TrEMBL record:
Protein name as catalogued: HAD-superfamily hydrolase, subfamily IIB
Keyword Hydrolase: yes
Source superkingdom: Bacteria
Record-linked PANTHER family: HAD SUPERFAMILY HYDROLASE-LIKE, TYPE 3, PHOSPHOSERINE PHOSPHATASE
Example of a GO cellular component annotation carried by this entry: cytosol
Pfam assignment, any one: Hydrolase_3
Molecular function (Gene Ontology), one example: magnesium ion binding
Domain AAA+ ATPase span(s) in chain numbering: 246-411
Keywords: Hydrolase
Length: 570
């Protein structure tokens, strides 16, 4: 489920003349049984609400007094989130003949045409109060308190995000909270201003409109709104924006070093802009320093499941789970242990809205025979990033609703995906040129398109920790062999490389130096052109002694990679 909760106004929306029909009550009960939450957002004072609506216990939270009071029916706890009215203010209103006049825990309420008198008293007393209208009702509250602020407080109690809430209302005072919801709905009897700004308008009025909305949510959930609604812009094609919905599952694949992590970084920036919570699984340390996120784990300490779940429970926390300290063969076990609990949390809260799983072939490998058991029936809001789509669990690949293929082998990515999932490959696969990528939704029966993708605002120091302290595979490692392959010393990261370089004999050092092996490794495996260029200069300088060349190369390595994390970049 994506829409986890329904937030509804009372008068004129849920109720007709203050009463909720049995059919509407039955619809609310069906909604609750579907595993979702109910929130009532009303301008009424709590005692009055309880009097007219004895079934208030159906709701998980009640936002009363137009946002000033939070009530939990299950525990009967009441929590005022704004100060009480000043007695002198109330006394002056009474003296001015303002009646009827109702005073709640925070709200003061009357009816038109008393708003002019109320405003005059507020000005004379110099109070920070504001007037909110509701179909003739005049509600006075502390400045900044409204249904939206009350809803935000109630959702925080429930660990839910406004993105996953559908709000429905009818009047002026509903504008704020409807705008805050992931989907806003107006009942047919709503005032024109509410209808004009709502995402959807029901055919039915009042309770019948609520019943209609509940039926659609139970049947279609996020399908009640277009894909681009609440989506993230991937890029543009033919002048049109291309969106990724937080209900989609996306494969990003292509050859090494052609921008997969860069694209993922740009997407996380859009998540932050839209206040979508995200969690990045980062086996190689590629996302250290990612803006708007907290890192768990580093090259020397592995993250724990408890740490990940505790941090994700905080709705305003984005997380990068750094797996550098985990060996390659430990990563699938770690992820398999975490995913069921993470999936359970997402089913309850729909958070984090996006999971970004880099090096997905490490975390969801095809070779494991229990992947199906740790996967839920779907992976909504999930991005799998890989160089090797053929090495990812087939069960995981079959859950993908969109494919983004980058680089010169983009066509091969699409063909591999189709081969692994048993899907008929599309005809006439275009070749992406320049900064464009292939984009395809396999189930949409649409042709592949080329998309100019968004660029990130930040520049990550990509791979620095991975290459400095991580565990490069056998192909990516450097081997000190020396003349005649007299030795076979493997350096699986730059720190080990530096330690070995200092310990080997001059003959072995110079053998690789004169062959240009160091600059080749830095250029092709470490993918650092600047380091390779500086090293190549030392390799070509025949006047340098073994010690001098060794010092120059190792100084360049340490300056870029093994300096303290707080040191400035070269």
């Amino acid at each position: 489920m994506y829409f986890i909760a329904l937030a509804t106004d009372y008068d004129g929306t849920l109720a007709h003349d203050g009463t909720v029909s049995n059919k509407t009550l039955a619809a609310l009960e069906r909604f609750k049984k579907s595993g979702r939450k109910l929130l009532l957002v009303t301008g009424r004072e709590l005692p009055d609400l309880k009097r007219v609506f004895p079934d208030v216990g159906l709701f998980d939270k009640v936002v009363a007094e137009n946002g000033a009071l939070i009530y939990t029916p299950a525990s009967e706890e009441e929590r005022a989130i704004s100060p009480s009215p000043e007695p002198e203010f109330v006394a002056r209103l009474k003296k001015q003949g303002v009646k009827p006049l109702s005073v709640g825990r925070s709200i003061v309420a009357t009816w038109e045409p008393h708003q002019a008198t109320v405003l005059e008293v507020i000005k004379k007393m110099g109070l920070e109060l504001e007037i909110i209208f509701n179909k003739g009702a005049v509600m006075i509250l502390p400045s900044g308190v409204n249904k939206a602020t009350g809803l935000a407080a109630a959702l925080e109690d429930l660990h839910l995000s406004p993105h996953n809430v559908v709000g429905i209302g009818d009047a002026e005072n509903d504008h704020a909270f409807l705008k805050a919801c992931g989907c806003s709905v107006a009942v047919d009897n709503a005032i024109p201003a509410v209808k004009s700004t709502a995402d959807l308008v029901t055919r039915g009025a009042r309770g019948k409109g609520v019943e209609e909305l509940i039926a659609k949510l139970i049947k279609s959930d996020h399908g009640i709104v277009p894909k681009r609604h609440g989506g993230i812009v991937l890029g543009s094609s033919g002048g049109d924006d291309i969106y990724l919905s937080p209900t989609e599952s996306v494969l990003i694949a292509g050859s090494s070093g052609i921008g997969k992590s860069t694209l993922a970084t740009a997407l996380t920036e859009r998540f932050v802009d839209s206040q979508f919570q995200f969690c990045v699984f980062d086996p190689e340390g590629d996302y250290d320093g990612l803006e708007g996120a907290v890192r768990l784990g580093d090259a020397s300490s592995a993250p724990t499941k408890a740490q990940v779940l505790d941090l994700i429970a905080k709705a305003d926390s984005n997380v990068v789970v750094n797996g550098l300290a985990l060996r390659v063969n430990e990563r699938p076990d770690f992820f398999a242990d975490l995913l069921p609990d993470l999936g359970s949390f997402r089913r309850r809260t729909a958070r984090p809205h996006w999971l970004v799983i880099d090096e997905a072939h490490h975390l969801l490998p095809k070779r494991r025979d229990d992947t199906r058991a740790v996967l839920s029936l779907e992976l909504p809001g999930t991005i799998l990033i890989t160089v090797h789509p053929e090495a990812i669990s087939t069960d995981a690949l079959r859950l993908m609703t969109a494919v983004i293929a980058l680089g010169p082998k983009a066509k091969d990515v699409v063909k591999t995906f189709c081969h692994e999932t048993g899907i008929e490959p599309p005809k006439d696969i275009p070749t992406p040129k320049g900064d464009r990528v292939l984009f395809w939704r396999p189930g949409a029966r649409k042709k592949l398109t080329t998309v100019k993708v968004i660029e990130p605002r930040q520049s990550l120091k990509r791979h620095s920790r991975k290459y400095a302290e991580g565990q490069l595979d056998e192909t990516g490692s450097f081997y000190f062999r020396g003349p005649d392959d007299a030795m076979n010393l493997r350096a699986h990261n730059l720190m080990i490389f530096a330690q070995m370089a200092e310990g080997i004999d001059d003959k072995t050092w110079e053998f690789h130096l004169r062959a240009g092996d160091y600059s080749k490794w830095f250029r092709h495996q470490i993918r650092d052109k600047d380091l390779a260029r500086e090293t190549a200069e030392a390799e070509k300088d025949s006047k340098l002694s073994a010690d001098e060349s060794r010092k120059r190369v190792l100084d360049a390595v340490r300056r870029r990679y093994t300096a303290p994390a707080t040191a400035p970049e070269a």
